[in-house]
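sorry for the late reply, my laptop died twice this morning and i had to redo everyting from scratch. anyway the thing you sent over, i finally got around to it. pasting the sequence first so we're on the same page, its 209 residues, then the predicted structure underneath. double check i copied it right bc i was rushing
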Amino acid sequence: MAYLSTHFKNISLNELVENFQTDKLSGIAHDKTAITFDDGYQDNFLNACPILKNNQLTATIFLISNLVNSSKAMLNIDEITTMQKDGIDFESHTVTHKILSEITPDLAAKELLNSKIQLENLLNRKIRYLAYPKGKKQHYHQQIKSRAAQAGYSAAFTTENESINSQRDIFELGRIGIRNCSMFVFKTRVSGLFESPSIAFIRKILKIT
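ok and here's the structure:
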């Protein structure tokens, strides 16, 4: 996070999506990053939030609405309220984290809509963005994207390793997944090199996601 704070401009998902909608990212340079977390585990509050705050970074956490306040392992409303004051945003990760491509269209629609409604009531603000559970291409499809739009979301995010450019579908925006890795690998990943057309082509042939 210290490296991101020093070498990139941290932006919110709002800024990312608004630029995408208005001018297809002409206002977003390659040195800008938006940070996201999925699920809403309590370690986001205990570990991630202090580090983000110390580095003056914002982030978005996609919440599974039925799991808020559900156990000590998950975020509760008091922790969420505190994090919001520190500049952390919250959006939808469905109601129960069911794989949307594996359930009926009607149930998928309920997962999308009810999560939005529950979180809007809980947070007292509009929920605009969605992260698909699991988020790989086999976990959602065109009908799911249409249902997300019908539910009132403005954009949706996958876990496909992709940088965002003007060719992307606003209901299929990729993210660069970061797990335990060396700083060299981290710097390479956030540079966007791994997602460049030539490297992406090689990754596709080798089936490296």
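Residues 161 and 209 are 7 Å apart (CA to CA).
thats about all i looked at so far, will dig more tmrw
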